[in-house]
Specification:
The complex is a heterodimer of chains A (about 250) and B (about 290). Chain A is mainly α and about 250 residues long. Chain A has one domain (about 35-250). Chain A is about 85% helix and about 0% strand. Chain A has helices at about 5-30, 35-45, 50-75, 80-120, 120-130, 135-170, 175-185, 190-215, 220-250. Chain B has two domains: about 40-120 and about 200-280, P-loop containing nucleotide triphosphate hydrolases (Rossmann fold, 3-Layer(aba) Sandwich); about 130-195, no CATH class. Helix content of chain B is about 40%, strand content about 20%. Chain B has a six-stranded mixed sheet, with helices on both faces. A four-stranded antiparallel sheet of chain B has the order 2-1-4-5, covered by helices on one side. The longest helix of chain B has 18 residues, at about 15-35. Chain B is globular, with a radius of gyration of 19 Å. The chains are: A mainly alpha (about 250), B alpha/beta (about 290). The complex binds adenosine-5'-triphosphate and magnesium ion.
Chain lengths: ~250, ~290
């Protein structure tokens, strides 16, 4: 394949992706409201990710406290451990790690499910019945992503900070007052909004990219596996890239 | 013109179905021969070509689907029957040529309009295309729940009735992956028939079924037709049985319409390709092996 063809293909693919997003957004504002489907997706993307989120966040918080203590103690500023953990959690790690975990757990499933529906002609069947497939399939997942990601991120932050507390206070013998008091005075509302903004964006990215990849899957089982893999890779990459730009914008 | 009782029940019809219907077909042939223009087409394709993956699949298809009649599309495997059917509902768009419903070009419609048009159709996919995550009952009820305002109790009655029609009573709580291939196909057929649309397209409704059920499905399609006078298009490999169960036949070959006309005329055709196909002979103008 020569360079020109490749460039054209990338351009076309990007265009189709944004068109898909646009159609999804427009469709989210048009009735009928499939609340039951939205709740089902919230349950699937959110509820069933609680355990992984809890597990990863507590360890992320613990390792952050451990590393942070080691670094800060070199400069004699162990007292700043609380704010260091809390700010990294709230501004960065909470949304990014939740986003990556949800991509792996729910995003891959979305891509695979829609991919199988595509290759078994179930999406065409929806179309023929006069049920717009984007409205029926992509919109509930999209809305669920928007709602769930910020919530999971908040949970990730809280549990992560508590994980840091475990290490700092129980293991390293810091006083609880120093750890928590530092957090209270250092974290501003702006930090929290930044984190939540990111979570919101990642919610869009994950459900958009993974729905898109599954929706346009082709060529049997191999096509679905390809769609799933590229959905996870692209979604993860886009989370990290957009993370940089959101950070730069919100500083 | 044969006379039809105002609303005959299915059971009554079943008893004299074949007779009633062959009478119909004779009458249809007569009408067609007297004046083909008197047979009103509801769907038509003009000069439709379609390339898929760089291969010419439809090579200039011209056809008319007569209104309120059963049309069978036959042809060897890979001749483009399923692709043609997908063009008729607008699932695929032609590279060139026109697909028209009631004289209106489907290609010119978009968005909401095409959705409204689609609700005039139902389509049985060759692979069934049941939703894996729903059980048989919910699958069959799906189009009613999504596109009509029928009450849940009425849906219940209609779905159970439709499942009984395809001999799937008691299977309503099974999931598609727990059914045999033939049962899957029948559940999908029930889903296609349940909305009672204006036009029903069936892609091989009897493929993979045993001869008894095949016959029963032909009876069902025919009885449904006699009751509702719905336009139906049936792709079928059930040759020669299908000639007994349709008014009109279209023979596709290598992406073109080889012949079309009343079933009885096509059956008596002297075209060597059609004769070979109807008789299923390996030797002849069509080279398979
Ligand atoms: N989605 C697709 N992409 C690429 N090629 C396709 C696609 N669908 C069908 N084709 C090709 O189009 C040709 C006609 O296919 P079609 O499914 O219409 O055959 P058919 O007449 O229905 O055959 P059968 O009786 O076996 O179902 C085949 O050669 C097939 O390879
Ligand atoms: Mg086919």
């Amino acid at each position: 394949m020569n360079l020109g063809t490749a460039a054209l293909q990338v351009t076309r693919e990007t265009g189709r992706m944004f068109l898909f997003l646009l159609q999804t957004i427009l469709a989210s504002f048009s009735p009928p409201w499939r609340l039951r489907n939205v709740f089902k997706q919230i349950h699937f993307i959110g509820m069933r990710s609680l355990f992984v989120i809890a597990l990863t966040s507590v360890f992320a918080g613990m390792v952050l406290a451990l590393q942070g203590y080691y670094t800060l103690s070199r400069f004699g500023s162990e007292a700043l451990l609380g704010p260091a953990v809390a700010l990294s959690m709230i501004r960065e790690l909470g949304p990014v790690l939740s986003g990556l975990m949800i991509t792996g757990r729910a995003g891959s499933a979305i891509a695979a499910e829609l991919g199988i529906m595509r290759i078994r002609e179930q999406i065409d069947a929806l179309d023929v019945m006069g049920v717009p497939p984007i409205h029926f399939l992509a919109v509930p997942r999209f809305l669920a992503g928007l709602i769930v990601l910020p919530l999971l991120t908040v949970m990730f932050d809280v549990i992560g900070i508590w994980g840091g507390y475990l290490v700092a206070v129980q293991l390293l013998g810091m006083s609880a007052g120093t750890y928590l008091g530092g957090i209270e005075s250092a974290v501003s509302m702006h930090d929290i909004t930044t984190g939540l903004m990111k979570a919101l964006c990642f919610g869009i990215v994950i459900t958009w990219v993974c729905s898109y990849k599954g929706y346009f899957a082709r060529r049997g089982a191999e096509g679905v596996s390809h769609a799933t893999t590229s959905a996870v890779v692209l979604s993860s990459v886009m989370i990290l890239v957009s993370d940089y730009f959101i950070t730069a914008m919100m500083l | 013109m044969t006379t039809h009782p105002s609303s005959p029940t299915t059971t009554e019809l079943r008893a004299r179905l074949a007779d009633t219907f062959s009478e119909e077909c004779r009458e249809y042939r007569q009408r067609y021969h007297d004046n083909p223009a008197a047979v009103v087409p509801i769907l038509s394709m003009q000069g439709v070509t379609k390339h898929l993956d760089g291969r010419m699949v439809l090579n200039g298809i011209d056809l008319d689907i007569p209104k309120q009649a059963i049309t069978a599309i036959i042809g060897i495997s890979g001749s483009g029957k399923s692709v043609t059917l997908k063009h008729l509902v607008g699932l695929m768009r032609p590279d060139s040529g026109i697909v028209a419903l009631d004289g209106q070009n489907l290609g010119s419609l978009s968005g909401k309009k095409i959705q409204a048009v689609r609700r005039r159709f139902s389509l049985l996919f060759q692979g069934g295309a049941l939703f894996d995550s729903l059980n048989v009952f919910d699958n069959v009820a799906f189009p009613l729940r999504e596109t009509t305002r029928i009450s849940e109790s009425e849906i219940q009655t209609r779905v159970l009735g439709a499942l009984e029609d395809v001999n799937l009573s008691g299977m309503e709580h099974k999931f598609p992956d727990e059914l045999s291939g033939g049962m899957n196909k029948r559940a999908a057929l029930a889903r296609a028939l349940i909305t009672r649309p204006e036009i029903i397209l069936l892609d091989e409704p009897t493929a993979g079924l045993d001869p008894i059920i095949e016959n029963a499905i032909h009876h069902l399609i025919c009885a449904t037709f006699l009751r509702t006078r719905t336009t139906m298009v049936v792709i079928s490999h059930a040759v020669p049985a299908i000639f007994k169960w349709c008014h009109h036949v279209i023979v596709l070959h290598q992406g073109k319409v080889l012949a079309s006309g009343p079933a009885m005329t096509i059956q008596d055709s002297s075209d060597p390709v059609i004769r070979q196909f109807i008789r299923g002979e390996v030797d002849g103008p069509i080279h398979i092996l």
